[in-house]
Backbone:
């Protein structure tokens, strides 16, 4: 496996591969986090780069990461540690105010991208249009993720946002399924399994409208009484467009309850053989017999992944969502 690291300063492009020191870590996520590349280089007096310069990272001649230098740290031994982020960084870092009327998530992303000078690639948002959306003082990332969440609730699908090779991409979950299998037979030796109902679990849903004065305020509730008794009330509370009728609110509330009323189960698999084709958002087949209260054998989703390249070796860490409703 061959890697190449290029640094662009103005019109000059430097091949920094010969001065790399130690490992290169490439992190990617579909959970609203910026992609990241961490590496160290030996200061040689030739390769010149500063904050904001472009970084391009290739594996076997394929561009895997394109981003910008954000931090540099130099030691007395003249080793420079660098952290670079992709375009998702600007979505996380910047806030703004927008009013969207009858816009699709694709159009919202294109508008934000044009305003902030971001490169936009393939966008699949299912074609659903958001009747009205006011975003005030929110991060650009939250605006886009909210739009994709609304599309998902309306279409019953899940959409992922990420940067691939310097372009913002949105794909539906099904588009990212790959024929990869991981088994606890030597391929997996280190893992951590977590269960959680504290962050993204809800057993009750309340949707409400608060639009124009002449429009009657409406609300819709749904709950799982058994899980309320078991966990206490964990209520999802959200404003919806005033254009939605009661039937649409009921359908959306029930869909949210079905999706969110479960124990969140996540798995971190560490120090496994690397596969550069695996990326955050991929659905893969995973087998770990006797995992806690379950014997895992089925499809799982990679929420984030870290590829580590060091001394010709390639290892990975995968953060995995176990998609089990319960």
Residues:
């Amino acid at each position: 496996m061959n890697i190449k690291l290029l640094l662009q300063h103005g019109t000059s492009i430097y091949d920094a591969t010969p001065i790399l020191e130690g490992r290169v870590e490439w992190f990617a996520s579909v959970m609203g986090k910026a992609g990241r590349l961490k590496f160290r280089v030996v200061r040689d007096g030739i390769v010149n780069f500063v904050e904001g310069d472009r970084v391009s990272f290739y594996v076997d001649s394929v561009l895997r990461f394109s981003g910008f230098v954000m931090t540099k740290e130099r030691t007395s031994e003249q080793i420079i540690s660098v952290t670079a982020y992709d375009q998702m960084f600007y979505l996380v870092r910047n806030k703004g105010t927008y009013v969207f009327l009858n816009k699709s998530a694709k159009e919202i992303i294109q508008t934000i991208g044009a305003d902030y000078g971001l490169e936009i690639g393939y966008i699949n948002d299912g074609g659903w249009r958001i009747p009205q959306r006011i975003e005030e003082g929110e991060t650009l990332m939250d605006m886009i993720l909210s739009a994709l969440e609304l599309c998902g609730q309306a279409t019953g699908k899940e959409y992922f946002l990420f940067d691939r090779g310097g372009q913002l991409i949105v794909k539906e979950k099904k588009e990212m399924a790959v024929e990869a299998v991981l088994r606890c037979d030597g391929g997996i030796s280190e893992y951590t399994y977590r269960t959680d109902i504290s962050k993204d679990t809800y057993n009750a849903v309340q949707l409400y409208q608060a639009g124009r004065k002449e429009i009657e305020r409406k609300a819709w509730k749904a709950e799982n009484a058994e899980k309320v008794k078991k966990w206490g009330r964990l209520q999802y509370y959200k404003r919806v467009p005033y254009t939605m009728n009661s039937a649409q609110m009921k359908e959306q509330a029930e869909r949210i309850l079905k999706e969110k009323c479960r124990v969140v189960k996540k798995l971190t698999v560490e120090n496994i053989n690397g596969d550069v084709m695996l990326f955050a958002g991929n659905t893969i087949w995973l087998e770990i017999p006797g995992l806690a209260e379950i014997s895992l054998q089925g499809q799982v989703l990679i929420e984030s992944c870290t590829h580590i390249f060091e001394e010709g070796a390639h290892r990975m860490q995968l953060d995995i969502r176990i998609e089990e409703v319960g």
User: Anything to note?
Assistant: The longest strand covers residues 296-310. DSSP finds five helices and 21 strands in the chain.
